[in-house]
Amino acid sequence: MIMRGFAASFLALSLFLPAASWAASDAERAAICAEALERFDAVKAALPPTDPGVVTVLMYKYNFCSKSLSVKTGTVVRFVNVDKRTSHSVWFKAWGKDESDRLFPEEYWEMKFDIPGTYPYLCGPHWQQEGMVGQIEVVD
Length: 140
Fold this sequence. Notes:
- By secondary structure, the protein is α/β, with parallel strands linked by helices.
- The chain has a single domain, classed as Immunoglobulin-like, CATH 2.60.40.
- It is built from 3 helices and 7 strands.
- The N terminus is likely disordered.
C-alpha cells in the first residue's frame, strides 16, 4: 500500500516537473556526443552507406547528437542508435507522425524533409524522464 502511494506521488510530481530537469547539461551533452561520435566511427562500417547529403543524428546515453540542426528542404536525416544496450525511437509527435519502431544498437531510421518548418522530435520511451528531445529546422 505504501508503494502505491509513493508511486502515485512520484508520478504526479513527474507530471509537473519539466523533462529538462533530468536532461544532461551542455557540458555533459558535449562529452556524451563526443563519445557517441567515437561509437559511430566504430560501428558505421556495419551500416549501409549513406547517399551524399544525408545528415546523421546519433542516439546515445539518452541524447540526440546533434540535439538541434538546420537542413535544406529535401534533406534525408538518418537517426542511428550507437548505444550498446538501450533501444530508442524517433517520434515527430507534434506533427502527428507515427513513432518509429524501436531502434536497437547499430540500427537506424531515416526521414526526408520536403517542407520547410520546425520539426521537434523525441524518443518515445525516454523523452519525459530523460529529456531526450531534439529539433530540426528545415529551410529553403
